[in-house]
Amino acid sequence: MAVERPTTVIFDLGGVLIDWNPRYLYRRLFDDEPAMERFLAEVCTPDWNLSLDAGRSFAEAVAELGARHPQERERIAAYQERWLEMIAGPIAPTVAVLEELTAAGVPLWALTNWSAETFRLVRDDPAYRFLDRFRAIFVSGELRLVKPEPAIFRHVLAEIGARAQECLFIDDAPKNVAAAEAIGMCGHRFTDAVGLRSELVALGFLDGA
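Above: the chain's sequence. Below: its structure in token form.
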């Protein structure tokens, strides 16, 4: 029996199409790289950031963390006040692939772990006009669900009216790709646009030229 190929593509945004990294900001606030890494591992941790992506307000999260780490209060506040400095801009080679898919008429959607408060800062910026290529963008902070929870993938499938096998999911985080594959999606672990385009050619989304 022939293997069913996906016909729809769902993109992650941060790390795939948009270059987000808190180090872009915190290298300006620390003179010492190891100290910065300790701060991001022990104070403004990935789990703390994920709580923002899940819908927790910045005001509440920053106030609570600042109370626990008063010596780092200013740097914690910068996570909100200078958030845009964590964004380096679009990842141009991947945007070019997105434009190819658009020209080919491929149905495109986006699923991102992102705070609803900060996503609007990017969504309204003309530099990110390519986001208009998506039929819809599912933002974790609006849904109050986050990857890699299976519920967020099921929500997206229900909203777009697709079966898991019909979807290729692209993400830079291995655990998110694994979660998508666990419910039946085809997954691609993004590392660069060249590898992504090769996968899209292999799956029949794009021509090999």
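The chain has a mean pLDDT of 96.
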